[in-house]
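Homework-ish question, so no full write-ups if that breaks the rules, but can someone show me the predicted structure for this set?
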Amino acid sequence: MAAVKVSFNNRLRSLLVLALIAGVVVALRLTDIQLLRHDRYLKMAERNRTQVLYQTAPRGRIFTADGKAVASNAPSFDLYYLSAGPKDEEYFSRLAQDFAPRLGMDKEKVLKKLRQGAKSGKAVALAENLSPNSVMALKELQLYYPGVYVIEENKRVYPYGIFASHLIGYLGSMEGDEWKNRDLSLDYRLDAKIGKNGLEKKFEKDLKGRDGGVFLEVDYRGRVKRVIEDRKWQPGSDLYLTLNYAVQQAAEEGLKNSKTGRGAAVALDPRTGAVLALATAPAFEPGMFVPYSDEPQPKSKRISEYNLAVQGIYPPASTFKIITSIAAIEKGGFNAEKTVFCPGYYDAGSRVFKCWGVHQDDNFFEAMADSCDVYFYTLAAQIGPAAIEKTQQMFQFGKPTGIDLPGEKAGNLYGPTKRARNRSYWFIGDTLNLSIGQGELLVTPIKMAQFAAAVASRGKIWRPYYLDRLVNSQTGKVLQQGQSELLGTVDIKNSTWDLIFKALKKTVEGGTAARVWIKGLDVYGKTGTAQNPHGDDHGWFMAFAARPGEEPSLAVAVFVEFGKGGSSAAGPIAREMIKAYFGIQDTSAPRAVRASAQEEQPAQRLPAAPPEEIVSHMQDLQNVLFSTVQRQEDR
Amino acid sequence: MAPYPFSSRKNRIDWLLLGAMAGLTLLGALCIMSAVNAVSLSNPVVRTHLIALPLGFAVFFAAWSFNYQIFDEQWKPLYGVILTLLIGVLLFGTYQRGSKSWFVLPFFSMQPAEICRVLTILVAAAFLDRQGRRIRDMRTLVLLGGLIVPIFGLIMLQPDFSSIVITFPALLVLLYCAGVNIFYLGLVFAFAAVAGFFTVAWTYLYLHPSLLDYALLDVFYKLASSPLYMAGFSLLVALAGYAAWWFFKQLRIFLPSFYFVLATLVVLAGFFAGVFVDHQMKPYQRKRVEAFLAPQSDPQGASYNVLQAQIAMGSGGILGKGLFSGTQSQLGFVPEKHTDFILAVVGEELGLWGTLLVLGLYLLILWRVAVVAYLASDRYGYLVCSGIFGMFLTYMLINFGMLIGLFPVAGIPLPFISYGGSNLVSSMFALGVVQSVYARRITLG
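A: Not a homework solution, just the prediction itself:
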C-alpha cells in the first residue's frame, strides 16, 4: 500500500492548546478550593454533619460578702432518645418499662415516642423539664440504656429578686452583630443569653462558662447516625462581692418606701473603700428577661438602666458646709466658739440672702447642727471662694470616684478658678452659694459616699471597689482579687478633723440630723436639701458611724430625689443602713430635736440674677470678691 | 505532530489512551461504590456499573477491531438507526425523572440518546467528508443542519437537554476542524447565542413575575406565548433587516443583500429555537438557570447543590478523607453524588490529588485523540477524532466548570467516572473508534 500521508489543517491543534489552557485554569481553581480554602470548607462540612443537643453551662454565681447567692442557676432536665442506639421492639419495651414510672408517664406513651424517634431517625425528647429529684435515678438508668441521654440546661435565677439589680444587671438575647464580638473560644450560640448590664455584662466572659452537649452526627435530613461526643459543661467562675446583704437590703427597703421611691444609697467601708451597699431606686427585676422569650418587652416592662448612684448628679447642698468649715479652719484664726448673729438673712449689699430659719447667736457647732446658712455665708465672705475651691479639690470634687462601673459621671467643680477658665466673672453671690453647696456644684451619690468615707477616715480618699474576688468554681483558684486603692489623702490638721467630728456628732445628737441618732453608737452626719427649680427639692444625707472608742467603719450617703428634706427623707434610710451594719435591733426613738433645728428648709430661692443688674450694683458691694482668677491666685 | 515516541509499526493500539481510559474507569468504579456506600453486588448501582464495565470494554475492543471506514460508507443506514432509536424511545420509552428517554428491557435499561450522540458525530463526519471542497460553502452547512435538526428535535421532545448541551459543541468543533468558513461558523454560533438569550431571558422573567410590570418586558415575555406574537415579531425582524439594508444603501455602503437576509434568518431561527426550548423546559431546569445567574438568591434551593459540592471538595483538602469516609457524600449532603456530582466525591475522598488525577487523565485522553486525528490515514478519521475530541472536551469543561461555579448545573455525567451504563458504553465505544483510527493509521517510514 502506497503510504500517502494526507495532511490536515491545524485547527484541531489550536483547540488542543485551548483545552490545555482551560485545564490549567481548572487546576488552579481546584487548588484554590481544595488547598487554600480547605479550612473554611472543612468547618462548613463539620457544621453540616454535626447537630448538638446543648447543655447550657451554669453561669458563675454572684455572692454577697456574707455568702448570699444573689445570682444563681436553676437546672432543668430533659430526657432524650437518639435513634443511633438500638431500635428493636424488645429493647424499647424494656426501656419504656423502666423509664415510664420515673417520668410519671404512661408506658404506651413512652413507647410511641421511641417508635416515632426510630422511624424519623431524629432525636426525640421523651420528657422535658424533669424535676431534679427524679434526675439522679434517670442518670443512673441512662448508663444501662444506650441511646438515652439526660440533657441538663441551666437557667439564670436571681433568688433575691430586685436585690442590687442595678449593680448585678441582667441577661438578654444577643442583638444584631453582638455575637461577632464574642470570644470565640467560649462557643457562643446564636440563642445564647449574655449579660446586658451591670456585673453580668462586665464579667460576661468569666461568668459564661463553657456549654456542653451531646454532639451527634446527622445526615442531610437530620437523622442521627451516631454520637460523636458527650461533652460535660464547665461552669463559669463565681463572683464574690464586698456587698453587705443587710446594709444593701436596708438601703433598698428604705428607698422603696421613701416619699418618692426614687433615689440612691451608697455605703462604703471608710477603712478600705469597699462598697457595702450600692442601691438605686426604682429597681428592676433582673429575672424578668430570663423566661427566654425573644419577643420585645412591652414598654411598661422596660427597665430603667439609669444607675442613679453613679450617674445622677445633683448639688450637694448643706452637706458641703463641711468643706466650707474645713477651708475656714485651715485658713487659721478660726474660733469655733465665736458666734454669728443670724437674723434670718444675710445682707450682701446689693441683695439679701436668706437663711432657712432665724438662729440668733450660733457658734460653729450650733451652726453646723442647725445648718445655719448665715454663719457659713459669713465664713465664706471672710475666707474667700478660692480657699473653698481649693478644699473641694483636695476632696477630689469634680472627678469621678473611679468605681469600676460604666457611665460614672464626674460631677462638677464650682469655684472662681473654674469660672475663669470658662471666661466668665465671679460674684459675691457665687461665693455665698458655694458656701452652702448650691449653684453649679454637682456630685453623684457615690461621690458623696466617697466624701463621707474621706471625712470618716480623716482624709483618706478611696477608690470604691465592689469585687472581693473572682473564683474558679471548679478548682477554687482565685482568678482576680479586689484591691483597696487610695486615690489621695486630704492633708489637714488633726485638730481640724476633731472640730468637724464634734460638729457632725452634734448634728446627729441634737441638730437637723437628730432623727438618725442611734443608741450606743457614735453617729456623725450632715443633712442637705438641694434646691430644685423644676420641682420638689432633693434630700441628701451623709453620715458615718463607729462603735464608741473605735474608728468609723461605715460611711453612707443617701439621696432621695424630690424628697424635700434631707433629714426627713434621706435620714431614716441612713439610720436603717447603719443599724443593719452594726446589727442593732434597738428601735428606741431618736433623740429630741433642738427647737431651732426642726426640719431644714432650702436656704432660699435664689433668683437667677441677670448680670446687668449685678453689674449696676457693683460699686455698692461691700465684700466684693469679683476678681478674676489671676487676681485670686496672686493673693 | 511528532510521531509516537515509542511507536513501531506493530503498535496497533494506543496504550496511553487505553491506560487513561482504564485508569478513569477504575477510579470511577471505586468512587461509585464509595458514593453509594456499598461494595457488594446486591446494591443495584454497583451491580449495574460492574455489568456495564465489561460490556463497555467489549464494545471498545469491538469498535477497535472494526474498520471505522465502514461508518463512512454506511452513513445513511447509520442515520436511519439514529432516527429509529430516537423515534422508538418516544413511542416505546419509559418516563424517568420527567423525561421519556429510556428503553426498559428485561435485564437492563438504556438511554438511546447516549449512543446517538456518538453516532451523530460519525454521521456528521461522514457527511462533511463527502463535501470535499464545497466544505466552505453555505450549502454544506444548510444541508448538515437539515440532517441534524431532526435529531435534536427528537431529543428535545424527550426532553433531554444535557444531550444537546454536549452534542452541539462537539458538532461545532467538528465543523471547525473540517474547515468550515469561520464566518458561517460564526452564524451558527450567533444562532445558538440568540436561542440561548431568549431562553435565559424568558426564564428569568418567568422566575421574577414582578418585572412584568414594565410594559416592554411584558410584551417581550409574551412573545413566546402565542403564534400571533411570534408572527408579529418575525415581521418586525424582517422589516428591521430590510431597513438596515436600505440604510446602508443610503449611506453608499454597498453590502451584498445576501448578508442581510442571512442575519435576519439567523435571528429568526434563533428565536424559534428559543421558543421551542422554552416550551420544553421544566421548572427545575429554570431553577438551575436562576441558581447560576444569582447564586445568592436561593441558598437552600438549586445553588445549595453546588455549594454542598464545593464544601465536599474543599473539605477534602490535599489528600482527601479517604474512600467511604467523606462526610459530605456519605451523609447525603452532596446531591446526585454517584452521577452528576461524582467529582465532588472524588474531591472529598481523594482530595486535590484525586481531582487533579482525573483532570490530568482527561487532558491525556484529549491529547491522544488529537494525536490520533493527525495520524489518521484518511480525512474521515481526522474528522471523527475531531468530533470525539470536541465531545470529551465539552464533558470535561462542563463537569469541572459546574463544580467551580463557571457553568450552571446541567445534570451531565462525567464519562468513565459517573454511574450510568449507557454513557459508559457509548463513551468507550467512541474511544474504541479512535483506537480503530489509530490502528489503521499510515506510519511514515
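Now go work out the reasoning yourself. Hint: Residues 11-36 of chain A form the longest helix (26 residues).
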